[in-house]
Design brief:
Blueprint lengths: L13 E4 L2 E3 L2 E3 L4 E2 L3 E2 L4 E3 L2 E5 L2 E5 L7 H9 L7 E5 L5 H4 L2 H7 L4 E5 L3 H7 L9 E4 L4 E3 L4 E6 L9 E5 L4 E5 L20 H12 L3 H11 L6 E4 L10 H11 L2 H6 L4 E7 L5 H14 L4 E7 L5 H10 L2 E5 L9 H7 L11 E8 L5 H11 L9 E4 L4 H19 L14
Parallel strand pairs: 8-9, 9-10, 10-11, 15-16, 17-18, 17-19, 19-20, 20-21
Antiparallel strand pairs: 1-2, 2-7, 3-6, 4-5, 7-8, 12-13, 13-14, 14-15
Helix pairs in contact: 6-7, 9-13
This protein binds MU-OXO-diiron.
MU-OXO-diiron binds next to helix 2.
């Protein structure tokens, strides 16, 4: 099968290090990947061949409908009987579509996968009856091809649990899987030859790697010490010119800019609200003022009516705690609140502190609905939200203030004890 190219003219492997060939497939006509990603330049499924004095390794395969091109390039270099090793850095179907057929053609080859890939491999190869052998590897396990050594780096959740990287020691080539990849199809293949793909690189990071920033930073600890001459990802250009700048860029993208701005010793609390008649806004102001009384917390207040989703998502990603205020209209929270709460798939919210508040006229369901959504996003809701019928009284505003203090104190690890109120200050 072929994916958008004339296979007769795409039969050649491309050597980019001694004995190391690109044998992937081009998919220039693809315009949407995995339902959710736009691919204005199409994509590539990069597979690689490493020849050693005592064996040949295939590293990753391609999407099933591109397999004809992959096998043609492979056959231009080796007989199937020469293949001793198949490495799978990641088992998503865009890299394992050709695997069953490759295993049929090279049954002697040993499969190498990460420990976390086992269940996925078994599921993938169910049609083959489960009769296959494989070896699981962890960081610093190696496979010898005679004069070539493949060393594995365990890099889970970039962006699936199974993901790993493979480093060819003698050539300084990192086969990085989806890491450092992008959906950018250009037959010139190399980062110093293709068009300007910076947008695609950052877009790919934002949609694929961004939710896993802590895992990216862990992986970089393994990657940064390597002698890197080239990075060979599974999508997009091979990074042979100044590969380390892509590593540096990943570290920048994965490091909180807020931490750089306010220092690591402060916690960030962001309060968002919508208000119909000013009552929820009044509550938001009191909550903010209460939180602001707590030392070590940077509190920000935003009216959702005056903002756009993308910058708010950046704020949300870097915040340690989030509060959402909404009036209840027809038994529901208002649309701008739902819009932002439904746009958070690209960031990790797990463990962040959340809370809700709002004024209502009849029934006041919005607060509980927002809390439920936050729990669904794996956020922690330590305190029941504040609900006020219509116009908040002084006592209810005080309740809001205490709510803000409690959230802020929870952030700083201080006891959320009731505040002592000086009514003269009210
Ligand atoms: Fe390119 Fe996660 O597969």
């Amino acid at each position: 099968m072929s994916c958008g190219v004339d296979v007769a003219s795409h039969r050649h492997a491309v050597e980019f290090a001694d004995g190391v060939h690109w044998i992937g497939a081009l998919d220039p006509t693809l315009r949407t990947f995995d339902i959710i990603l736009s691919t204005a330049n199409g994509t590539t499924y990069n597979s690689y061949l490493v020849r050693g004095s005592e064996g040949v390794a295939v590293i990753d395969t391609v999407k099933e409908n591109c397999s004809e091109e992959f096998f043609a390039r492979l056959e231009s270099q080796v007989d199937y009987s020469d293949i001793t090793v198949i490495v799978l850095n990641h088992l998503e179907p865009d890299h394992t579509g050709a695997l069953p057929e490759l295993m049929r053609r090279a049954p002697q080859a040993q499969l190498y996968i990460s420990q976390r890939a086992t269940s996925m491999l078994k599921a993938l190869l169910k049609p083959m009856g489960g009769d296959f052998d494989y070896t699981t590897v962890m960081t610093n396990d190696t496979v010898s091809l005679g004069n070539r050594t493949l060393r594995f780096l365990h890099t889970p959740f970039l962006h699936w649990p199974d993901t790993q990287c493979t480093y060819l020691e003698e050539e300084g080539v990192l086969f990085s899987g989806d890491v450092f990849g992008c959906h950018y199809c250009d037959k010139r293949l190399f980062n110093d030859l293709v068009g300007d793909f910076r947008f695609s690189f950052d877009y790919y990071y934002a949609h694929i790697m961004r939710p896993f920033k802590p895992h990216v930073l862990e992986a970089l600890k393994l990657i940064e010490p390597l002698q890197l001459r080239q990075i060979a990802p599974t999508h997009g250009p091979i990074l042979r010119e100044r590969p380390r700048r892509y590593v540096t860029h990943y570290r920048e993208l994965s490091t909180s800019s807020l931490t750089r701005e306010i220092g690591g010793d402060q916690q960030s609390l962001v309060v968002f609200y919508m208000s119909s008649y000013g009552n929820t806004a009044r509550m938001a102001e009191e909550i903010t003022a209460g939180a602001d009384d707590v030392e070590g917390v940077r509190v920000s207040l935003y009216d959702l009516e005056g903002g756009e989703t993308d910058p708010f998502i950046n704020l949300i990603e870097e915040a340690d705690a989030l509060l959402f205020g909404s009036p209840t209209i027809n038994g529901d929270a208002v649309k701008p609140v739902w819009e932002i709460l439904s746009s958070l798939a690209v960031v990790s919210l797990k463990g962040k502190i959340g809370g809700a508040f709002g004024s209502y006229g009849w029934s006041g369901e919005a607060v509980r609905m927002i809390e439920d959504r936050m729990r669904g996003l794996k956020m922690h809701i330590p305190f029941e939200g504040v609900r006020v019928k219509l116009i908040p009284t002084e006592e209810e505003l005080q309740e809001c203030r205490e709510f803000g203090q409690q959230i802020a104190q929870r952030l700083t690890g201080k006891s959320p004890a009731k505040a002592v109120i000086d009514f003269a200050d009210l």
